[in-house]
Amino acid sequence: MRFQPGDALIVVDVQRDFLPGGSLAVPDGDKVVPVLNDYLRRFAAAGLPIVATRDWHPADHCSFVARGGPWPPHCVQDTSGAEFPDELALPDDVLVLSKATSVEADAYSGFDRTGLETRLREGGVERVFVGGLATDYCVLATVQDAAAAGFDVVVLEDAIRAVGVEADDEARALRSMREAGAIFITLNAIDADA
Ligand code: VGL
Ligand code: ZN
User: Fold this and answer.
1) What one-character-per-residue DSSP string does the chain give?
2) Is 137 a pocket residue for ligand 1 (Cβ < 6 Å)?
3) I want to staple 74 with a disulfide (CB 3.0 to 4.6 A). Which of 24, 37, 128, 172 is the partner?
């Protein structure tokens, strides 16, 4: 496979709080970073658009345990936990889109009230490559919405990790993404010069 005009890379929620040591750490979440850096380098070299979504919650967000939600506080706006890790090599012209920014609504999908679909269409994007965190929440929802919007969807199987609240959550998420029409690749499926 090679990257071509009409392709875009979507890096989902690679933020400190989702990495080991963070408040909602995804097991081995840090392992996606070097792999994503490889994809990032290739997309940047090809001049293709790169989007990074971020979970960007107010301090009293409804998804937090104190508000009756399922999660410990995480990715609170303007805190270090919400930052992209320094090791993630995002290019200067990356499009950063924040989601789940209002108190009373959660949003797992990068397409949920972010303007992402419009931005992709304006850029002539037809196929999206999706990696990041977490497989069973925001990657899944983003992949499902991308497919529902009519984009071809390629999941970067070596650049995703799951929270795994239940043991089979990851497997179910992978199955759901396949059922949505997504295909899966790893770096070794990419032409060496692409
Ligand atoms: C996410 C749980 C809560 C994610 C965000 O980015 O997958 N998961 N908020
Ligand atoms: Zn969240």
Assistant:
1) ----TTEEEEEE---GGGSTTSTTPPTTGGGHHHHHHHHHHHHHHTT--EEEEEE-B-TT-TTBGGGT-SB-S-SBTTSGGGSPPTTS---TT-EEEEES-STT----STTSSS-HHHHHHHTT--EEEEEEE-IIIIIHHHHHHHHHTT-EEEEEEEEEE---SSTTHHHHHHHHHHHTT-EEE-GGGS-TT-
2) yes
3) 24
Q: Over the stretch 86-104, which tens digit does the pLDDT of each residue have?
A: 999 999 999 999 999 999 9
55 lines ligand 1 (CB under 6 A): yes
Residue minimizing CA distance to atom 4 of ligand 1: 138
Q: Quick check: pTM over 0.90?
A: yes
Note the ligand closest to the C-alpha atom of 14: 1
Q: With a 6 A CB cut-off, is 14 part of the ligand 1 pocket?
A: no
